[in-house]
Automatic annotation (TrEMBL):
Protein name: YCII-related domain-containing protein
Entry similarity comment: Belongs to the YciI family.
Coiled-coil features, chain-numbered ranges: none
Residue span, YCII-related domain: 9-75
């Protein structure tokens, strides 16, 4: 998932703690592989460990960033075939 901020960074940061707690809960369920802010801070990247785009969109709709209207996400499918994530366990 690639996010784009829809609000000034200070408005995004006001929701950041809730967003990070949301991601932490997903990590505990093995649904988030990694996540982080883009540089420069115009959005972020969340690599989800899900079966399909529909599940990814369902999950990301619960993100406080989305619910508060400070960011939107675009789903990009990806299958790692090399590197550290090559054999990452499937959901």
């Amino acid at each position: 998932m690639i996010s784009k901020y829809l609000a000034p960074l200070e408005d995004v940061d006001a929701v950041r703690e809730a967003h990070l707690a949301f991601l932490e809960a997903l990590e505990a369920q093995n649904l988030v592989v990694t996540a982080g802010r883009q540089d420069p801070a115009v959005g972020g990247v969340v690599v989800l460990n899900v079966e399909d785009e529909a599940q990814a969109l369902e999950i990301i709709a619960q993100d406080p960033y989305v619910q508060r209207g400070v960011a939107e996400y675009n789903a990009i499918g990806w299958l790692p075939t090399r590197g550290a994530l090559k054999n990452y366990p499937k959901p």
